[in-house]
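Exercise 7.
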Amino acid sequence: MANKESNSYIFMYSTILVVVAAAVLAVAAVGLKPFQKKNQEIEKMQQLLTAAGIDNDAKTAENIYKECFKQELAVNKKGLQVSVYENGKLTKGDIRPFDIELAKELAKGDEAMLPVYICKHDGKTIYVVPVYGTGLYGPVWGNVAIAEDLNTVVGVLFDHSGETPGLGAEITNPKFREQFAGKQIFDNGEVKLAVVKGNKTDEKFQADAVTGATNTSNGVSNMLKNCLSNYIEYFKTLKTE
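Solution. The predicted structure, written as tokens, is:
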């Protein structure tokens, strides 16, 4: 009979416990993965819907998204469609635009695939494009919803991974986001939409920076310019259709 007070017994018993616990955690992680993925997808749908000004919550987002967003595209910087997902199936390309990770695509430079989400709501077409950049302490990202004129902001949604609460984190505040609605984006083929500190020199293109968060505000401004510039050629193709 084993001596339960011996070091070897204690070591063996502890090892067995660790192995069993690790196995249980591994099984749980595998089992929960589909649920985590689904939650991430619903959160992304909520963000797209919110940017477009469509009310939703975690329970209704998936159905509302399917009803409003009938088409997802991926375009390149030349404005050409490289992937198309519509009416619930992939009709062009080999990846659903919804599944594209923008941060990874932007790192590819001219080879990047850029998602465009086309929303039909209340008889209007809204184009929602994702944006990604850098704040003071880490990544910032979001979505910009654009009206049928391909220049007017319908709405925006921003988020971050580590900006300071009460300062840079205020980019998620509805009051900060709401000021973008109605702003113009492009002028003479360039992105003029910007976040500025102090007096605005051109009201129709500029939103107020977050007080005390200059670096984060500049990060949002740079993000808008850098990412929205990638869609200029695509929007040109729409204007010529």
